[in-house]
Specification:
By secondary structure, the protein is an all-alpha fold. The chain contains 5 helices and no strands.
Length: 126
């Protein structure tokens, strides 16, 4: 299993060698949404708890990485956008912990929607 530092390094290596940063972010957000969607679609599966744990932790890592990058002083995004995305990340953190404590299929919708919408926006951005 990757530590947070190893995950960050792997992300940066893939980003440098394959895609633009935006496309990489869009791809991982889409994958995060798909993992959660699969959990919803297989809610009665005997392995649901394991699938849900994997999906939630994947989402947590992505959003933690975003938080780390957005908190850097040299981040090139405008301050207001950084603050807005950091607030969104805090909301997602809270929702993930809520789902971990009290799993319900409907609680996944908002994270799935946010991930998909943000990915779509990243793909449209210049």
């Amino acid at each position: 299993m990757y530590s947070h530092g190893n995950a960050v390094n792997a992300y940066k290596q893939v980003d440098r060698h394959t895609n633009s940063g935006r496309e990489t972010e869009a791809r991982v957000l889409t994958e995060a949404a798909l993992k959660l969607k699969r959990c919803q679609e297989n809610w009665d599966d005997p392995n649901r708890d394991r699938m849900l744990d994997v999906a939630l932790r994947y989402n947590q890592k992505i959003w933690s990485l975003f938080q780390s990058e957005l908190s850097r002083e040299d981040n090139p995004l405008p301050q207001k956008l950084r603050v807005d995305i950091l607030r969104l990340a805090a909301f997602i953190d809270k929702r993930i912990f809520e789902i971990m404590a009290y799993p319900e299929t409907d609680k996944l919708n908002i994270i799935i929607d946010i991930n998909r919408n943000l990915a779509a926006g990243l793909r449209r951005a210049p």
